[in-house]
């Protein structure tokens, strides 16, 4: 009897639930998508607190440790087990054959890992001065968990700072292309006729250009004397200008199939304006599909920024993004001797996969015919 009442209550909740609540109930059953959502949440928390999480600032460099390999955290030593992780010191020596500088652990010196240490001062989110960092080592030691670049700058710190640019440029670019694609798609699908033909021919012209050469051309058009902030905004606009066409065509197709439905005709006969019909009746009927498309568009924006910056036509120093960091990995010889320079690729892959998994989960949750 109790089980029957419980099942009836669940059925009543489903019938009374809104569309978004039903989507959430189905989405949270998708374990892979939920896990990917947790990863994305952590990545965006990194973008907020990167100054605290990074062991060093962007301007910090130690030229004596140029191209230093990643240091290993250890808990075992010749003295036994240590309760607190530590790293050995680094010492540079010359290879007698190649004369290339190589690094070896100096086991006579060890430095314990500490949390919430006083480090180099920074300005948190540009609002106030601070100096507390999540991790660090004792004075005199170094903490290069992912190695260093050609100037001795900590790669982990630069990746954490670069996440702020690479991840936010994807969101801002998607939002800009979202509004542009939404407006153009609604107008094209609702009015039809010569308006639809003109817009669709224009979209076909844009889509006929190969993406990378088009990005390169638009990126090269940015003035070289622009400030880092102007370059950031310029790259965002460039990615948005070429990323709205797919969404516009999807919206157009949905509008074409819905504009003659009974609810749209009833609203028209009731005297509703065309703008109200488009925004209050047609768009909400497939908003879940649009959100799925947006989620799947973010990885494309991130990859676009990474490709432009990697080719030297996007963001430039002193701005730090994952694409800018990968420019040092253009040289095959550098990769052969210093493979840790490719570490930003791992973060790009994780981010793209996580957004794709979330998109798949949303698509299944928004599909009324999905099991």
Describe what is shown at a glance.
The chain has about 375 residues and is α+β, with helices and mostly antiparallel strands. The chain has 15 helices and four strands. It is elongated and about 85 Å long.
How would you describe this structure to a colleague?
Helices cover 57% and strands 14% of the residues. By secondary structure, the protein is of the alpha+beta class. The chain folds into 2 domains: 60-143, no CATH class; 159-366, MetI-like fold. The protein has a 4-stranded antiparallel beta sheet. It is elongated. The mean pLDDT is 80.
Features:
371 residues; MetI-like fold; 2 domains; 4-stranded antiparallel sheet; 57% helix
The CATH class of the largest domain is identified as Mainly Alpha
Tally of strands: 4
CATH architecture of the largest domain: Orthogonal Bundle
Secondary-structure element pattern, one letter each: HHHHEEEEHHHHHHHHHHH
Main sheet properties = 4 strands, antiparallel
Distance between the termini: 28 Å
What class would the helix/strand composition place it in? alpha+beta
User: Uncertain spans, ≥5 residues at pLDDT below 50?
Assistant: none
| Helix share bin | 55-70%
Topology:
Layout: H1 2-16, H2 19-27, H3 31-48, H4 50-53, E1 74-77, E2 80-94, E3 101-124, E4 128-137, H5 155-191, H6 193-208, H7 211-220, H8 228-241, H9 245-258, H10 262-269, H11 274-282, H12 287-310, H13 322-326, H14 332-337, H15 343-366
Antiparallel strand pairs: 1-2, 2-3, 3-4
